[in-house]
Amino acid sequence: MSGASPILPREILIATVARLLDGVRHVAVGASSPIPAAGAMLLRALKQQAGEKPVRISILGSVEHNFFTNGSAELFDCAGQGRIDAFFLGGGQIDGQGNVNLVGAGAYPQSSVRWPGSFGSAYLYFVVPRVILFREEHSPRVFVNKVDFISAPGTSAEGVYRRGGPHALLTSKGLFRFNKTQGNFALDSVHPGHDLAEIKDATGFRFDHPARPEQTPEPDARTLSLLRGQVMDELSETYPDFAKQMRDDLQALQDPQAAIAS
Amino acid sequence: MLSDLETLARQVEAGMRLALPVDYAGVSMAMTKPLIARGAGDLHVICVPTGGLQVDQLIGAGLVSTVETSAVSLGEAGGAPRFNQAVKTGAIRIMDATCPAIHAGLMAAQKGSPFLPMRGLIGTDVLRNRGDWQVIDNPFEDAGDPIVLIPAIKPDVAIFHAPMADRFGNVWIGRRRELAAMAYASTTTLVTVERIVDESLLANEMSAAGTLPSLYVSDIAVAPKGAWPYGLWGEYPTDTAELIRYAKAARSDEGFADYMSGRMLEPAQ
Q: Which domains, ranges and CATH numbers included, belong to chain A?
C-alpha cells in the first residue's frame, strides 16, 4: 500500500476497531474515548453504505449520541438485559489473563498510584459479550504479568454467571485476541512500523504468537474515504479537539511543507 | 420552602452520609463553599455513582472520612488530586464500588428492601474488599449460581442542582433519573436550582413526567450557574478550562488552599 496515500497510525486503529465490532447491533462507548467512538461510527457508516442493518451507538456523556432517559443506571440495566453487544475498557494495568485494574498500583487501599476507580467494569465485563480492551500506551507498566487489583477478571470459575468478557486487546503496536478457553492472549497482528521483538519487549506478560505474525491490514480506499469524511464530521460534534488534531495530522502527512508553513 | 444556601448547609451535620451526583447529572457546586464554611466533618460521601470536583474539594477541606464510590476523577482534566492524595496517605477510608452496585443499593432503599441482588463482581477485588456485601447461592436454582447482595444505601442527605423548581417545591429533573433515585433513598434532599417558576410543574403532563415531586424535596435555594464549573444539561456547558485550572492548583496543599480562598470560586459572568 506504500506509495498510495499515506495513512495515520490512528486511522489504522480506528479501522481495526470497526473490524472488531463487525456484526454488533448496539455498542456503548465510554466518555473521553474518541478512537473507540470513531471506530463505532466508521462501522455504522460502512453498514449504512452497504445497506445493511443499522448499528446503534451510545456514547456516554454525549447528548447527541445518547438516547437513555432513565439516568445513569439505564446503561447497566440495558447491558444486564443483553441489549449491549460491545463495550470498551481501558485500564491502568491489564495482565495476560485479561484481568483489568482501574483502581491503583501497589498495595490496596493505600495505592502508590491511585486511578479513578473501577467505574462499571466489575459488572459490564461479565455481561457484555464483546469487550474490547483498548489502550494506546503499550508498555510493561501497563501490560503487566499480574495486576495489583482486579477491577474486572478476564475469566470466571465454572458456575459463575458470565455472558461477557474480553474479546480483543488493541494497542498502538498491535492487536491481540483473547482465548477464552485458555484464558490468555494471542497476538493477531502487528501494526505497520512495529515488529514482534518490540512488542515482546513492551509487554510484561507472555502471549501466544505465530513465528511470523501478520501485519494489521490498512483500511481500503472506500473505508478511508468514509473515515476522513463522514466519520470525522460526526466525530467532531462529540470530540472537536480530537477531530481537529486528526485533520491537522493528516494535513501534515499529506503535505508536510504546507503544514510547516501554516 | 425557599431558602438560601447557608440554611441548606446548616442541615448537614458531622458524621452524616451525604449522597452527591455524577458530574454531568447536576452537581450543586454552589453548595460546596457553604458546606465548607459550615464545617460539619467526618462525612461519609456516597458518589452516585462517581464523584468529581465537589467530592475532591470536600476532601481537600478535611470534611470527609469515608468515600463510597465507583470512581473519583476530574474527567478530561485528569485525576482528582485531593482524593488521590487522601487515599495515598490513608486520610480517608475508601469503599470502592462499581456503578451498578451504587444504583442497586439506592434502589433497595427506594423500595424499602434490605438489599438487592446483582450479577457480576464475583472474583473481583472490589467484592473482596467489601465486607458489607454478601454472596449467596441463587435460591431459585437447584445448585450453585452465586450472586452478590448489595445492602440498601440510605443517605442522610442528598444534594443536587437542577434547572428549575416551582413555587410548590416540585423540582424538574428531566431525564436525570439518578437524582430521583438519590432523593427516594435519602432522609433529607437539598436542591439548588437556576430559577423558580410560578406555574406548578405538575400542571402539565410534559413537565410532570420529568418532575421530582415536593414529597421528596426538603429544601430549595436559588443558585444561578449553580453547577459551575460543571455544566448543567440543557442550560450551559462544562467550563473545562476552569477544571484544568483547579486540577493544576490542587496538586499541593498550598495550591488547593490558594484556589479555595480565591475569587475563582465564583462563576464567570
A: 9-261 (3.40.1080.10)
Q: Do residues B250 and B259 lie in contact, with contact meaning Cβ atoms separated by under 8 Å?
A: yes
**Interface probe, candidates B45, B126, B128, B160, chain A, greatest A C-beta count within 10 A:** B126
Domain that holds residue B133: 115-151
The answer to whether the CB of A138 falls within 8 A of the CB of A206 is: no
Burial label for A44, CB within 10 Å (0-12, 13-18, 19+), is buried
Read off the pLDDT of residues A33-72 as tens digits, 9 standing for 90 and up: 899 999 999 999 999 999 999 999 998 867 777 889 999 9
Tell me the sheet residues that pair with A168. Answer: A132, A177
Same-domain check for residues B120 and B182: no
ipTM value for the complex: 0.95
B102 within some domain? no
Inspect the interface and report whether the beta carbons of B103 and A72 lie closer than 8 Å: yes
Facing residue for A150 by CB, picked from B22, B107, B124: B124
Arithmetic mean of pLDDT, B156-185: 98
Which of A72, A121, A160, A241 best probes binding to B when mutated, by most B CB atoms within 10 angstroms?
A72
Are B188 and B9 within 8 A, CB to CB? Answer: no
B262 pLDDT above the threshold of 90 = no
CATH of the domain at B85: 3.40.1080.10
Inspect the interface and report whether the beta carbons of A109 and B176 lie closer than 8 Å: no
Q: Could you tell me if B183 and B227 lie in one domain?
A: yes
Contact A110 B119 (CB under 8 A): no
- B-chain residues within 8 Å CB-CB of A108? 125, 129
Are residues B140 and B21 located together in one domain of the fold? no
Same domain (yes/no): B138, B246: no
How many independent structural domains does chain B possess?
A: 2
Q: Can you list the residues of chain A whose pLDDT is less than 70?
A: 1-4, 61, 258-262
Given a contact cutoff of 8 angstroms between Cβ atoms, the answer to whether A9 and A193 are in contact is yes
Residues of A in contact with B185 (CB under 8 A): none
pLDDT surpassing 60 at residue B263: no
CA distance A86 to A23: 10
**Are B14 and B142 members of one domain?**
no
State whether residue B159 is helix, strand or coil: strand
Q: What cell numbers appear for B108 in the block?
A: 433497595
pLDDT 10s digits, B100-124 = 999 999 999 999 999 999 999 999 9
Residue of B96, B145, B206 to mutate for A, most A C-beta atoms under 10 A: B96
- Is there a single domain that holds both residue B21 and residue B76? yes
Residues on chain A touching B129 (C-beta within 8 angstroms):
108-109
Q: What is the DSSP string of B80-99?
A: -HHHHHHHHHT-SEEEE--H
Please check whether residues B73 and B164 belong to one and the same domain: yes
The nearest CA of chain A is from the CA of B252 a distance in Å of 16
Residues B242 and B161 in one domain: yes
pLDDT of amino acid A31: 76
